Amino acid sequence: MVIAKNQTNFRDLFVGLEVEVPLLDGNQRPYINLDNAASTPPLKSVLNTVNDFMRYYSSVHRGTGFKSQLSTHAYERSRQLVLEFLEANPAEHVCIFGKNTTEAINKLARRFPFSTERDIVITSGMEHHSNDLPWRANARAIHIDLLPDGRLNEPDLDAKLAIYGNHVALLAITGASNVTGYLNPIYRLAEKAHAVGAYILVDAAQLAPHRKVTMGSLEDPAHLDFVAISAHKMYAPFGTGALVGRRDIFERGDPDMVGGGTVEIVTLDEVVWAGPPDRDEAGSPNTVGAVALGAAIRELSQISMEAVARHETELTAYALEKLQGIPGLILYGDRRPEYAAERLGVLPFLLDSHSHFLVASILGYEYGIGVRSGCFCAHPYLLHLLGLDKQEANEVRNQMVSGDKSQMPGMIRASFGLYNDFSDVDALVQALTDIVQNKYRGSYVQEIASGEFLLENWAPRYDEYFQL
Fold it and tell me: What is the set of active-site residues?
């Protein structure tokens, strides 16, 4: 498959791409960030909006001064932009701001009206820990099986819904895997959840920056009841996330955090809670973060999510084709370039001749390429993809609990943002080719406690680049 290099260049929209970083050989090179599934750099328009807003920043809600009223207006406008981005109806859905997707899902787990009859949450074995552990702590969590290649086993979901249907309160599913980039059929899954009287939550932390997400009307059987997003994955890393969910759920029940802003009135004998979203936003909010998220949404909407998806599909197809030419490189997930549109640009791989920890360190220290290695906060999923049986997994677990992570299973993950281009892929391919041929300079020592490899007798002088 031949990929035409005719992509739109989005690099000028972002902050910091020209920054050079030090390499082991004494040279400097513009940093290549291929760790976007973890976090993304800010858009220039986001940073400019924040800097402009800071002149007017003040307390929000109930302040009578001009700056306070302007800040409140900006904060609530950001909330409106989130709802519009997800095509959510304000009469049916509410946007609750928090730190990130993890906090959003934990909030829903504590706020959801589980009952004696409906106390089961069905999730999957491919989830980020943030869409697994909160359900284990607050409900009966049942996991959908996976196919050998890591895809969702939809027939197994059907079987579990048939068995537990009347007891299922919620289907909590990732919209896109942060490990393999697989896209789940969230609207079809929503129909299945609703058919048994359950709700659906979509963890859209990975999905929303890359594909269009639509909540839909509550009258539509394929609608989404709850969606969680993180601004730091959407080019607005200022500490905000959002939970968008059914207004009728958040209109009732006690908030999971209480204090200022959550009440209508308090006496020594009574508390009357505020309506949503105030009921669930205790304390002074991260107004700046909300404004940053709103600015990012505005920029992404102007670009169009269709253009975002098209750019990433072309880049992913090109990368899949090039990476498979490297001897000894093992790609996980769907390796077919012609199916790149059906996945995100999240590429997990291993070199059969080198530790994943070592490869990631060499890429950073000697090539100025940022990737991630390990289990990506999805331990059960990685064990499944790597084919470890229960005995092998238990041996690894015991070794790690004892403080030795040197043999921790894992992969290397390269993940794309809107600003990445073909030259970034070429640089990665060349670096990995060098590593396979042992053409790296450094002498590396592994830390037993973390598993990571550090260079002997060399470390960057961070204070020369940034001081606080």
Answer: 377
